[in-house]
Amino acid sequence: MSTFVLIDVGGGDLSDPLRLENDTSGNAAIFRVQNNGNLVVLIDGVLITLANHVQISNSLIVGLGLVQTGTASVGFGLTPPADGKLFATKTASSGFIFEGVDTEVTNPFGMLLNFSASSPDDNIRRFLECIDATTARLFIDSDGDVNNHDGIYGTISDETLKQDIEDAASQWDDFKALRFRKFKFKTDVAAHGAGAQTKLGLVAQEVRATSPGLVGSSDMRHDQRDPKKPHVPDMKLTLKQSIVFMKGMKALQEAMLRIEALEAGP
């Protein structure tokens, strides 16, 4: 095979069919077509590193810190691992490892994690796992369970962010009216039959009859992701569980006052 070489100084690898070199004594090729068909473009510098060149071959694409293998695995900052499809590493002392920005004004959406071919519904396969150098800190399991290391779920509550602060009204009647039920989810029965777990909780339609402020709604339609097709919402009622808890705490305070009054006697 003939070789075409453009160089500023002597040297170079004549095994490359096409080669363009820089003017340093190292004869580093800033553009080369290798005899195996690979294409390499050096962005700057003499020595090839992960951050300064682009290489395209039949099984690998490397470019400016990005690596894509023939198995469609992609890595940012280093070669992607064999057991993952997207991998990124960050060595800088500040900034996020990942930041997604949706600039859509009228219809923005965030992140979607989708097990499109199965429904594990268990505590082994996970949607999200957060770990540090020593300890597992947070899991979101495929059955929707959320577990964290400290068992703490907080609320932004600083006084400087609030106004119109006053004592809450009695929650005695509202909390007393709640009907706590046992039930099974239809999807669990379809997947597990008689082994479906029995849950303890509230039914949104029943709660709405006495405390409509505790009930919201959400689009549960998850099988329409084609932007060319109109999205048909499937709105289902949801329950503001944390507010139910706060109502219960207020009702408990009222019960404590009544008990203390009875204990004190006339």
Automatic annotation (TrEMBL):
Domain Peptidase S74, residue spans: 157-266
Basic and acidic residues composition bias: residue spans: 219-233
Organism: marine sediment metagenome
Region Disordered, annotated ranges: 213-233
Coiled coil: none
Name recorded for this polypeptide: Peptidase S74 domain-containing protein
Gene3D superfamilies linked: Winged helix-like DNA-binding domain superfamily/Winged helix DNA-binding domain
